[in-house]
Amino acid sequence: xxxxxxxxxLFFSKKIxxxxxxxxxxxxxxxxxxxxLLDQTNDIWVRDFMPIQIDHKRFVSFSYLPSYLKNDxxxxxxxxxxxxxxxxxxxxxxxxxxxxxIVKGKKRVxxxxxxxxxxxxxxxxxxxxxxxxxxEAEVFIFPTExxxxxxxxxxxxxxxxxxxxxxxxxNVYPRSIxxxxxxxxxxxxxxYIEIPCKPERDEISAKGFYINYLEFRNFIYLPxxxxxxxxxxxxxxxxxxxxxxxxxxxxxxxxIAKEGGLLNCISWSCFSSNHHIREAI
Length: 281
Description:
This protein is α/β, with parallel strands linked by helices. It has helices at about 15-20, 20-30, 45-50, 80-85, 115-120, 125-135, 175-185, 230-240, 255-260, and strands at about 10-15, 35-40, 50-55, 60-65, 90-95, 105, 110, 140, 155-160, 165-170, 190-195, 215, 220-225, 245-250, 270. The strands form 5 sheets. It has a 3-stranded mixed sheet with strand order 2-1-15. It has a 3-stranded mixed sheet with strand order 3-4-5, with helices on one face. The protein has one domain: L-arginine/glycine Amidinotransferase, Chain A (5-stranded Propeller). The longest helix is centred in the last third of the chain and has 14 residues, at about 230-240. Strand 13, helix 8 and strand 14 form a beta-alpha-beta unit. One of its GO terms (molecular function) is protein-arginine deiminase activity. It holds the Pfam family PAD_porph.
């Protein structure tokens, strides 16, 4: 798969400008690369409904029909409309997975077990086998925290490389979930590094989850939060030590965090060669 650090074209939704003006001003003043705005979206969480890039020409698009939006169908973006506008022709799958629940390595992906609930008509074995076929990658399954209504892996962990993950401080999880996470780490022979995490324990808020950074080219755009100066400094120092060859750019988020997402959630990037992806301007 194409890793985020290998991409060269970055997108956000225009809805951010309408709904999160102050956060957006800080984002656009901090992003040091060219980016494009998508006008065909019904919400700001572009990571969830945009496709996964396999190589320079191939994409896979999973079905974006999350159970948490069953009462808010007006928020579900038409994936095909966006892809057609960008002149992307992905392979479409009927498997229901939000992009935020697919954490990519080069030849491995991590997905939370929420997918079994979202695709109850399939057996877990057949579901994993089909995802592995589509993504041409090995699938690792991690547990979903009981109170996590989204069930997105990018709120828990990220790949540093195919053998090492960056994960939230495990002490923030209840003992039962922590044991399952540790079992998943050990059974898949993964090394891990913990990152500071101080969740509000609000049902929706993503405040305190530094793991949901935006990785693009040589940059790590790291979310930071108000009234958390000590935690912010610790997170910046930790991430800087893990990625010494990257430029770490902190961005303060307030209203976006309260809606349950951060910088990875609101962004999507791809590798576009020979301008085969239309610029969304």
